[in-house]
Amino acid sequence: MLRKLFLLSIILFFICSFFNQIQAQYVYNKLVWFDEFDGKGNLPDSAKWSYDNGDGCPQICGWGNNELQYYTTSRPENARIENGKLIIEARKEEFNGAKYTSARLVTKEKGDWKYGRIEIKAKLPSGTGMWPAIWMLPSKWEYGVWPHSGEIDIMENVGYWPDSLFGSIHTGSFNGMKGTQKTQSVVIKDLSKVFHEYGIEWTSTSISFFVDNVKYETFENDNKGSEDWPFDKQFHLLMNIAVGGNWGGKFGINEVIFPQRMEVDYVHVYQ
Asked: Where residue 222 sits, what CATH number does that domain have?
């Protein structure tokens, strides 16, 4: 009996190893865009990155989730290159009527892709009120305003739940306004202490979410049209730290934690 159990355990081990190897095999392997943040100068490469500028109040700037930061442009206090890393820093300071500053970097018109594998290695900020995100938006909004043209959240974290990692998609049918967004969470204990690689592989039939090359969710194209699946157009990448807001500020903001930073080691895009 013990011999049979031992043999069964060996078989199960090899089956799991086999599927893990399959899981790590990607469709896309040609590097088409990257930034490893090892260039000269202390600002992000302007050939690859632009900035969204303004506060997080949708009534004023037309986007945002009522966050309390002001996103600045070309300001090293909020976005800079340091020791081969991109630093996005949220600070407690008065700026253009806001009480906090941060940065939201975007690749729009400098890095836009339809399908591919996107990988970002990063270490996250910590503390109640922090809301870091690595995500994607459509470059031309061909199916209409948000959420009809889609959103892909490669990584979201909220500081009041420090172990939280979320991967999500939003569409006309499935979105946060209705509470129907397609999302999956993973618990990881050291998000603010250790660099992890966050990624997706996006094809015409599915979007799979990965952390450290381990797949934790796949959202399938149900072939019912753009309200369910608007992900057949070009999207670009965004990286930011929000302060407070509808989700990140649910339990307030710890005022003594600032400044807080997200450190990014690299961004790789494969097709």
From this structure: 2.60.120.200
